[in-house]
Specification:
The structure holds 3 protein chains of 3 kinds. Chain B has 14 helices and no strands. By secondary structure, chain C is mainly alpha-helical. Chain C has a single domain, classed as MetI-like (MetI-like fold), CATH 1.10.3720.10. The chains are: A alpha/beta, B mainly alpha, C mainly alpha.
């Protein structure tokens, strides 16, 4: 008995201590084939999954024996973002190809030596296939370490069935029309709009606030201190909306609750990006054919500015191996080729920074494309402009603001303290 | 006197059952809700979370079963969970034995340090864990998860196991020493069997942790061969849309082994234990 | 008090080695890493820049973090002195093997098996002022609906109630210990005419003392690092009303404030250790087993 235990113990100890030694180093790929790993969020139930898989497949076939792109499925987006930042902090590139959501916080990644710089390769026809504004937004301190790919506009959504029933014929364009429409909706027995203060960004309310602030303070409003009049006025508008025109659960509600009210027809006005248009549950609602999107009513002198953002930028792991670098560029050129982007757009209804001739057939998705094309000027939303910390503070203090615990001025001062300049 | 006693007994009995029924409701509510909502469409789930579905959507289960590589992920999860329990209980019971039953200098400091590990918010350690695992070449290996989960559960297992081992009367051990038992035999023949209910409790915690863990699994693996069922469940969550109804169906399916494992552990093993304890 | 050298020193060392190797790799090294990072300015990219204890000063002066500490202390007290007593109550009832006790034991534990995501969703829905069950009950007795999770006055209590009602973990710890108390003790007490309640107070609770201290300590430790269910239900809001150190730490990592997140982690671990040691000292008195352990 004693012997058995001693031996068992010995085995465990040896196994524990020798584990690292047992591990074989990553075996080099066979016959000079370059394998590129792509930890990818467009997998599983994602609407882009199939098109992306097909593009990778056809690239691999065309480059058989030379380059092979391998998708590593990363289905949960938040966990994916954690993995990217953890990996970079540990000094390892998350993959040969990966995507990030570029905003004031993730711009920090541009400081990393682990990311490939594209400005040398991006020239000529390839460069001109991208939207110039998106490229400019993706350039930090003269460096282009990510390529803009998926974009989005964040308009206001109207359930026109409900609006018409309440006696409102068209989406309101001015604030006067806006308040009248909300009053009529309220009188017709629905809560006029979905609002929320939950999650890390108070998402749908953050979109509203961004529309107001940009209209009041102009396209470059985010460069101003948050104590600026444009923000204080926007905060006052939010207070009024929460007080009179939204659901009783809006404070503390997350995006799921906010969207759920719109889907259920409990609210008639909502804010979100193009991805929401592809939802099966939205399509199953009776009012789906009537859904109309528009810019928010102008709260200030700047009219018709659409809120847009970079939704996914493509990054690549830096390498000193020239062949590998060429392989990565090769694949990125293929992935961002207009015909392939159009293919992804077609299956998902998503919007891209690569110019294509594609126009969706689906009515709602088509509205997104036409409104985006018609917008003379765009500005980013609060989260993209100010980063994670300021956005979290915005969401948390929005609760206090609309409950009347703090004034619009102190609300703005609180957010200002969290802005990194 | 008799009447008062009878009254007290009835009152105690009513109170007792009130407590049991209350907690029964608290426990069953989320389970029933989960099963109910796994049979709805997403629209029904979002719009009226407490209503019955218009028509039970059994296709959610079909979708979950058709989920990519479900059997493989299932098998991996079982390997990881069983491996974690085995490795963790082996090392924790050895350490627990010398922490609870031996006198040596520095013991209390070691025990406090080990137990302070229960406080650690593991998410705060994501960067060092990732560094450690990649530097040791352990990235994307199934046994890495066993190692990491077994290690993460050391503090709580030490907590439970030492607590149970310390409660064993000294006399039993002394009797064994008189019978000629040495160090190893005291561990294997006296203390381990007598602290089996502590081991089962710690093992249950380990199993459930390993079965449900998601963050480290996502961080430390990238390929099918080393991924667990929790990552499969997340295939219902994409960047903008979560198919909650499908996800709930997958959760219900993935719960089954945990529940069966738990029922087995408790109703079979503990039954044997209590019999042993009475005899001892 | 100097202890004599134990003759089994080598064997003791041998038995401790596996745990110590794993603990060093997965707790000590990460803690040292975190502590070093907490003394620097580091956003997760490039080299760390040493700045001393500035992050600690900043955190302790931050009203949000101070609120988080307060909330964690409330969580710890609620877990230790509400959740564990409830678990003990149920465990003591089940230990007497009432009808259906095996099934009940399994069912009580089941919520611990299902994912926290699902638990958080069902409770958020229950608390919802529009379609939630609690407000439906309020409506029946003529009260206006309350936004439990959206009102800073009720949000913390609401998430804590959700947390402490799930007693499964502590119930099985206490039940396992209670079931191994020798039956003869109760038989003797019965002959002496002690009622059930008297038996519990005279026999069970004193016999379970060590286990209860363990359960309370463990529960308080979990309270100090509480994170997940609150994060899922309220995200720490509204207006930070339900934020905890764990949530703050997580948000700081999201904002790439790694050094401040590390400082938050160090404070959490140190405060928690104080709580563990303090509870042991306070509850361990008079218990020979626990005192031997101190």
């Amino acid at each position: 008995m004693k012997g058995i235990f001693k031996r068992a113990l010995g085995v465990v100890l040896v196994a524990l201590l020798a584990l690292p030694a047992l591990v074989v180093a990553q075996s080099p790929s066979k016959s000079g084939e370059i394998v590129l790993k792509w930890p990818c969020i467009w997998v599983g139930k994602d609407s882009k999954a199939q098109a992306v898989a097909e593009i990778v497949e056809s690239f691999n076939t065309a480059n058989a024996g030379k380059i092979r792109v391998e998708i590593e499925p990363q289905p949960d987006y938040n966990a994916y973002e954690q993995k990217v930042r953890t990996s970079l902090a540990a000094g390892v590139a998350p993959g040969d190809i990966f995507t990030i959501k570029l905003n004031a916080t993730t711009k920090e990644y541009y400081q990393s030596k682990l990311l490939m710089e594209f400005s040398k390769e991006l020239s000529g026809a390839w460069k001109s296939s991208f939207d110039a504004g998106a490229l400019a937004q993706s350039t930090v301190d003269g460096k282009l370490k990510t390529l803009p790919f998926e974009t989005a506009i964040l308009p206001i959504w109207y359930n026109m069935d409900a609006l018409r029933k309440a006696g409102v014929a068209a989406p309101p364009a001015t604030m006067a029309e806006f308040w009248t429409a909300l009053d009529k909706l309220k009188a017709s027995g629905v809560y006029p709009m979905s609002q929320m203060t939950g999650d890390v960004n108070a998402w749908t309310s953050m979109i509203w606030f961004s529309h107001f602030a940009v209209s009041l303070g102009g396209q470059k409003v985010w460069e101003k201190p948050f104590t600026d009049k444009a923000f204080v006025e926007s905060a006052k508008l939010m207070q009024r909306i929460f007080k009179d025109y939204t659901t009783p659960d809006a404070v503390g509600a997350g995006a799921g609750v906010s969207g759920g009210h719109f889907l259920a027809g409990r609210t008639a006005v909502f804010a979100n990006g193009p991805w929401y248009a592809g939802r099966a549950d939205l399509r199953a609602t009776p009012f789906f054919p009537s859904v109309t999107i528009a810019a928010a009513p102008s709260a200030g002198p700047n009219k018709g500015i659409m809120i847009s953002r970079l939704q996914a930028n493509i990054a690549a792991g830096e390498t000193t191996d020239k062949a590998r670098r060429a392989a990565i560029i090769n694949f990125l050129k293929y992935l961002t080729a207009p015909e392939n982007v159009a293919k992804i757009a077609k299956s998902s209804g998503a919007m891209f920074a690569v110019k294509t001739n594609y126009l969706p057939e689906d009515a709602l998705q088509k509205q997104f494309y036409t409104i985006a094309a018609a917008s003379k000027t765009t500005a980013t939303d609060l989260e993209a402009a100010l980063g994670a910390e300021a956005t979290l503070e915005f969401a948390q203090q929005l609760g206090a603001l609309v409950l009347g615990q703090i004034t619009p001025e102190s609300f703005c001062a609180a957010v200002e303290r969290k802005i990194d300049r | 006197m008799r009447r008062t006693k009878g009254f007290t007994a009835v009152a105690t009995s009513i109170l007792k059952w009130a407590v049991l029924v209350f907690f029964l409701l608290v426990a069953l509510l989320p389970l029933c809700w989960l099963v109910l909502n796994s049979l709805k469409t997403n629209l029904e789930l979002q719009t009226s979370p407490f209503a019955f579905p218009a028509r039970p959507a059994f296709e959610n289960y079909a979708n979950a079963m058709a989920m990519a590589n479900l059997p493989r992920l299932f098998l991996n999860s079982i390997i990881v969970a069983v491996g974690t329990v085995f490795l963790n209980l082996l090392v924790s019971s050895m350490a627990g034995f010398v922490l609870a039953r031996e006198e040596w200098r520095g013991r209390d400091a070691v025990r406090t340090a080990l137990e302070a590990g229960v406080l650690v918010p593991i998410i705060a350690f994501m960067v060092p864990y990732f560094t450690l695992v990649t530097k040791l070449g352990l990235y994307d290996k199934l046994y890495t998860l066993i190692l990491v989960y077994a290690a993460i559960n050391i503090p709580v297992s030490i907590f439970l196991i030492t607590s149970f081992m310390r409660a064993i009367p000294k006399e039993l051990e002394e009797a064994a020493i008189i019978d000629g038992c040495g160090f190893f035999q005291r561990y294997a023949r006296v203390i381990l069997p007598l602290s089996r209910s502590g081991l089962v409790t710690a093992g249950t915690f380990c199993f459930i942790y390993a079965w449900n863990e998601f963050v480290m699994a996502m961080l430390l693996t990238s390929s099918l061969s080393s991924r667990t069922i929790q990552l499969g469940i997340r295939f219902f969550t994409s960047q903008f849309i979560t198919d909650y109804a499908g996800m709930f169906a997958a959760i219900v399916i993935s719960m089954a082994p945990s529940v069966i494992g738990y029922v087995f552990l408790h109703n079979k093993i503990i039954a044997g234990l209590t019999a042993g304890a009475v005899k001892g | 008090m100097r202890k004599r050298r134990n003759p089994n020193a080598v064997k003791i060392a041998l038995f401790l080695t596996p745990v110590l190797v794993l603990f060093t790799a997965f707790f000590v090294y990460p803690f040292v890493f975190t502590f070093v990072a907490s003394l620097t300015r580091w956003r997760g990219i490039g080299a760390m820049r040493f700045i001393g204890f500035a992050n600690f000063g900043k955190l302790l002066g931050d009203p949000t973090f101070r609120l988080a500490i307060r909330n964690n202390v409330i969580w710890a007290l609620a877990s230790g002195f509400v959740q564990v007593p409830l678990a003990a109550l149920v465990a003591l009832i089940l230990a007497r093997e009432p009808r259906g006790w095996k099934a009940l034991r399994t069912i009580y534990f089941l919520p611990n098996v299902i994912s926290t995501v699902a638990l958080a969703m069902v409770w958020s829905a229950l608390y919802n002022p529009q379609y939630g069950a609690f407000n439906a009950i309020r409506g029946l007795i003529g009260l206006a609906p309350r936004n439990y999770l959206g009102d800073p006055a009720t949000a913390l209590v609401s998430v804590i109630i959700q947390g402490v009602l799930y007693i499964g973990y502590f119930m099985i710890i206490i039940l396992a210990a209670a079931m191994s108390i020798p039956r003869e003790l109760y038989e003797a007490a019965e002959i002496d005419g002690a009622t059930t309640l008297q038996q519990e107070f005279r026999i069970t609770i004193p016999m379970l003392r060590g286990t209860l201290v363990t359960a309370i300590t463990l529960a308080m430790a979990y309270g100090m690092r509480h994170f997940e269910s609150t994060y899922l239900m309220t995200g720490g809001g509204p207006a930070y009303a339900t934020t905890t150190m764990g949530i703050d730490l997580f948000n700081k990592m999201d904002a790439l404030r790694y050094s401040e997140a590390s400082a938050a982690g160090v404070i959490l671990i140190l405060l928690g250790t104080l709580v563990i040691v303090g509870i042991r000292k306070a509850l361990g008195k008079g218990d020979p087993m626990a005192e031997a352990g101190q």
